[in-house]
Fold this protein.
Amino acid sequence: MFEPFSLFTSALYVVQGLLGLADQRVLTDEQRSRARPAASVHLGSSVAFLVAGIASASWVQLNGLPTVWYPTMLSLGFLVSILVQGWLYRSIGVSQSPLLERARTRLH
């Protein structure tokens, strides 16, 4: 039961990393300069989440769970993502993802 949850959470890590990298692509130079440390930390955490998700899914698939606490640790990892995203969005002065805002303007 814990292994499927861990694999699902690992997949969410990969999605989170990819969405974070996509967010970085749509940031303007002005937004990046205004949020210099937050943008760098966000980029680093996005790459880390992508790599961690792939590594985690591979590990669980090949070797099983390293500990029964592993799903809890994976779930708590999302707190880091939430805090870093909040910091970035506050630093650039937006209330939601720039990627979401760009998609919304293209659809309307």
The chain has a mean pLDDT of 92. The chain is about 85% helix and 0% strand.
